[in-house]
């Protein structure tokens, strides 16, 4: 999300906001500079974007989004909606499965006794004790079950990621 927002929102949208608020520019100068705001040389309007989730034309980011073209004036809203869908709506089912799996091993309600910094240290370690998770470390630390073992294709693929 951060890369996407920096690339689009932090670039074009930020520049547009600055131009809109620059009272030293005449209307003609402002319009001229606005017309130069592009994505790698291409005007936003020519990107052929609408308010659907990129790669999923059946998922509208807002009602009637399929029929709404993205332009410089609504680009900030588009970026915000895409980010929301990709990072919240699009992964909520998977995150719920992770939560349920974690809860089956260690009750999430018990995590309330820890401060966020302590949880970070428990799950990520400290800089001094940090051991990067590579294939070997994961193989030695994990005990696959339910018919899987450390040599199962699914497990080796997971550890290789």
Brief write-up:
The chain has helices at 2-21, 27-35, 75-87, 92-105, 116-124, 135-141, 153-160; strands at 38-39, 42-43, 52-53, 56-60. By secondary structure, it is mainly α.
What does this structure look like?
The structure is a single chain. By secondary structure, the protein is mainly alpha-helical. α1 packs antiparallel against α3. The longest helix has 20 residues. 50% of the residues lie in helices and 7% in strands. It has a two-stranded antiparallel sheet with strand order 1-2. The protein is elongated and about 65 Å long. 6% of the residues are buried.
Strand order of the largest sheet: 1-2
Structural Rg: 23 Å
- SSE string: HHEEEEHHHHH
**Global shape:** elongated
Specify the number of helices: 7
Strand content: 5-15%
Show unreliable segments: 1-6
Biggest sheet details: 2 strands, antiparallel
User: Based on the structure, what is the oligomeric state of the protein chains?
Assistant: single chain
Overall mean confidence score, pLDDT: 85
Beta strand count? 4
- State the end-to-end distance: 20 Å
Helix content: 40-55%
Give me the secondary-structure category. Answer: mainly alpha
